[in-house]
Structure formats: C-alpha cells, structure tokens
Amino acid sequence: MRILQVSAEIFPLLKTGGLADIAGALPAALHEAGCDVRVLLPGFPAIVAGLRNPSPVGAFVMPWGEMVEVVYGDLPALARGDMQQGAYVLIAPGLYERPGNPYEDANKQPYGDNHRRFAALGQAAAHLAHGMDSLWRAQLVHSHDWHAGLASAYLKLWADRGATRVPSVFTVHNLAYQGVFGPQYFGDLGLPGEAFHVQGMEFHGQLSFMKAGLFYASHITTVSPTYAREIQTPEQGCGLDGLLMARRDALSGILNAVDDTVWNPTSDALLEQNFDARHMAGKAINKAMLQGAMGLAIEPDAPLFAVVSRLTEQKGLPLVLAGLDEIVSRGGQLLVLGSGDTWMEQAFTERAKTHAGRVAVKLGYDESFAHRVFAGSDVTLVPSRFEPCGLTQMYGLKYGSLPLVRRVGGLADTVVDSDLETLEDRTATGFVFDAFDETAYRKAVRRAFALYHRKAEWNRVRQTGMKLAFDWATAAGHYTHLYQRLIQE
Predict the structure, then answer these.
(1) Taking the mean position of all CA atoms in its chain, how far away is CA 64?
(2) Residues 197/202/206/211 CA torsion (nearest 10 deg)
(3) Is 19 exposed, middle or buried (0-12, 13-18, 19+ CB in 10 A)?
(4) DSSP assigned state of 427
(5) The dihedral sign for the CA sequence 268, 272, 278, 284
(6) Where do runs of H (alpha helix) occur along 33-107?
(7) Paired residues of 58 in beta bridges
C-alpha cells in the first residue's frame, strides 16, 4: 500500500511536542509492516535543511495567488535499517521561511496567516493523491492534527465532484488545539461554498481545520483507546463531541508507541551510563550526575520526582505546585524541565530559589537533557487534566522512573496503579489517582514515598514497568489493517 503521511513537524528535524515523535517513528514501523510510505511536510527551515537530493515534482497556485512548489527528496535523519525515508516538502518561502517556532512568532502569538500555511499543506496532499507525482501516487492519505486537517476535506470534496476517490485517515493528537480562524479567510482555502456549513468545517461561525478533518475523513483515529471514548463526551469533546458521537462507527483509538531506537536505556548514548531492568547500577550513577548538574543535594536515598512537560494547565502542573511541599517535607526532590505559561515558569523558578538543593528548574525544552532526566529520576509526574496519550509516562517506564499519573486518556491505558492486589500479582507499574484535585494528588505522592521506602517492592514494580513493550510493530499492525479496509471499500 502506498501511504502518504502528512504532518507539520517530524522528529528529529523539527519538534515542539509528541506529534513529532509519532510522525518520525510511524513511517518506519509501517515500512517494516510492508507499506510504501512517504511523508509530506511544510518547508520550514529545519526540514528543508534536512532534505537531501531534492527534485521538483510539481506546483500549484493557492487562491490568493501564491505558488507552492512540491519537491521530493530523502531525509537521512529518518533512515532506519533498509528504509531511506522519502519526503515531499513544500517550498514556499513566503509561507514557511521564518525563524523559531513553526506556529507562533517571538511573542508566542499565532502567525496571522496560519490558515494559508496549512491550507497549502492539505491541498498538496490532495494533489499528490491525484497524480502530481507521475512516479508515485498515494492510495491513502493519513494526516495528523489540525495542521493537516484540510487534506481530508480536499480529498472528499474533490471526489464529490468527480475526482478519483482516495480514502483518508485523520489522527487527533490533541482535540484542544483546533486551528480555528475567522470566516473572512474562507476564500483563501479554495474549497466549495458548501464546506462553510455546520455539515462541514463551520464551527460557531468560524473555520475549524480540526472539524474539517473530523467531518471529511474516511476514518478518525486518536492516540489511545480511552481518549477515543472521552472525546465523545461534553467534558472532553471541546465542543465537537456531538460530531464525534455521530461518527463513532468511524472512530477508533490506537495507542501510541515508543521508538526503541531513540528511547532505550540499554543503548542511549546520551546517558552517563547505560542500564537495563536486570542491571540497575547505571541508574544510580545517572541520578547522582543529574542531581549534581542541577544543583540538587546528591542524596541517593532521596526520591527524585521529575516533570518533563509543557508548563500548561492541561498538564496538571498547578497540582504539582500546590503539592510541592509534600515532596520537600518528606525528604524528596523535584526537578522540572519545560517551558510554557509565563506565570507557571515564574512560579516554579521562585520555588527553586526558596528550596535550593531540593527543587531545580530548567526552562526550555532540551531533548538530550530529557533523556538524562528520565534516566536519573525515580518518579515521573504526569497529573494531567486531560491527556490524549502521553509519551512522557512511557519514557518514564522504560527508564525506571515510575509514573505518577491521573487516570485519564492514554495515562489510564498505560499505567497500572500500585495497590495491594497489583503488588501481589506483580502487574503494578506506577501510581494512579482519579479526581483532579490537590487531595487526590497528594495521596498519590504519599503512596509513592511509602513504596519507595520498601525497596524490594519498589524494585519489583520498576522492573515490571521497564519490561513493558509499547512497540511500534503492534501499532503499525492496527494501522495497516485499517488502511487495507479503507482502500478496499
């Protein structure tokens, strides 16, 4: 099967969150499952810089008159085994050649022409599915998150007007980010008037790229089974639960996986010393080095709690701030790596000054340092308000940092709470709480301390978590089965 994967970012070339990790790992997994996979990406500077041997494929003109060129080349950074990753990249300097974040300016404000930038991405996908490249034509287009949501709209609406039917899969990584724009921009999209309708991409008088993907895709997937159920409810449907309920027969959850070539303590070159579930001496060394590097007291018996996250309300970090004294007063330590809301960055920074040697903060996202944090910490905190899947808790499990999570979304699907029953049958892998409140969170923290001081049981739970396999072969199997069914319909 010839599959075109469409996303706005891809690891290791360009990453702002977990979407890039998935976009980078899934093509290789699909290749190993027998698919002929190519990726389509916007021509952001980091992506263009990573492209080798580009050759022109074609071009098209968007409604406002800007020409978008499509080139094809190789992305050596994504090569795995016998796979040389082929990539289509959009060349439109006026749209994509900007420094820094791909979506926002230096003041963290969305670019005013984001609707144009990502409409071009969606239209390019449709052109590639309809013969723009005479040497390769996609049989199915798989687009990711709102940035690529219009791909499904172009494919469906073109087919309604006589073009060849090409099925599409649209994956929701986070329903809260919807790509909503004013109705005055509809003319820039090159879609027929019927698309600006409640039975289309119209959303409370606005244009929603997310809704376009949800409404027009042949099939919708989310990144965990629990999240697929949750987004059909008013609590987590972000105003789209009615549409998702109506499309529930074309909606499924496929759990994200972890790229073992990138996240593996046995072979990770970024660590001070490698280790595995049976040989844990290296983890103690990583912990001591991490404590020293961040100005924390080098205390091997002090449980080190870690946050590796965007610093936002969604991630439940107000709970971490509110319960910080629970960790410090019991002799623990807290390390925070991330960036986000200014008030939250300032709050954690102030706490680090107040609790020198017990609390440390490193603002900004540092991919290499994140590996060291998982390798050196004892507990990974992910107390999210909502969480489509979450990769952080999976990284924590692999590196022997027990996740402390709220029972929501993918966190519920990947972490087994440590209680009397699961400790006895040896299925426990972390700490799970239900209510999104400070009391429930603090109780989970206290349970983590209690288990930490029972070393034999702690080591057993840690070993169980490290042996779990969140493998891409399983996820790719689910996707290929879905692709086959849609292509044959």
Answers:
(1) 32
(2) -170
(3) buried
(4) -
(5) negative
(6) 45-50, 93-96
(7) 70
Q: Is 417 helix (H, G, I), strand (E, B) or coil?
A: strand
Question: Can the peptide bond before residue 54 be classed as cis, meaning omega within 30 degrees of 0?
Answer: no
Dump the DSSP string for 3-28.
EEEE-S-BTTTB-SSHHHHHHHHHHH
Distance from C-alpha of 427 to C-alpha of 479, rounded to nearest angstrom:
28
Task: Return the H-helix or E-strand segment holding 349.
Answer: helix 342-354
Neighbours of 436 (CB within 10 A): 17
**Which 3 state secondary structure label does DSSP give 258?**
coil
Per-residue pLDDT tens for 312-353? 999 999 999 999 999 999 999 999 999 999 999 999 999 999
What are the DSSP E strand ranges found in 232-358? 251-253, 304-308, 333-338
Contact assessment for residue 41 and residue 482, using Cβ atoms and an 8 Å cutoff: no
The contacts of residue 459 (CB under 8 Å, 6+ apart) are: 280
Secondary structure class of 351 (helix, strand, coil)? helix
Q: Which of 380, 381, 349, 375 is nearest to 362 (CA)?
A: 349
Q: Which of 239, 170, 223 is nearest to 387 (CA)?
A: 223
pTM: 0.93
8 Å CB contact between 367 and 206: no
From the list 336, 332, 358, the residue with the least C-alpha distance to 347 is 336
Helix (H, G, I), strand (E, B) or coil at 142: strand
Q: What tens digit of pLDDT does each residue of 45-76 get?
A: 999 999 999 999 999 999 999 999 999 999 99
Cβ within 8 Å of residue 26, ≥6 positions away: 5, 472, 475, 476, 479
- Report d(CA 306, CA 404) in Å as an integer: 10
Rounded to whole angstroms, the Cα distance separating 181 from 169 reads: 23
CA-based torsion, 286, 287, 292, 295: positive or negative: positive
Contact 332, 303 (CB under 8 A): yes
Distance CA 122, CA 150 (A): 5
Residues 6+ apart with CB under 8 A from 324: 334, 351, 355, 359
In the sheet with 67-74, reading across from the earlier edge strand, the strands are 52-61, 67-74, 86-91, 36-41, 2-6, 140-144, 168-172, 219-222, 251-253
Q: Do the Cβ atoms of 257 and 475 come closer than 8 Å?
A: yes
Instruction: Give residue 302's identity as a one-letter amino acid code.
Output: A
Beta bridge pairs of residue 168? 141
CB distance 277 to 400 below 8 Å: yes
Return the pLDDT at 99: 84
Token output for 479 = 């996707």
Phi, psi of 117 (to 5 degrees): -60, -40
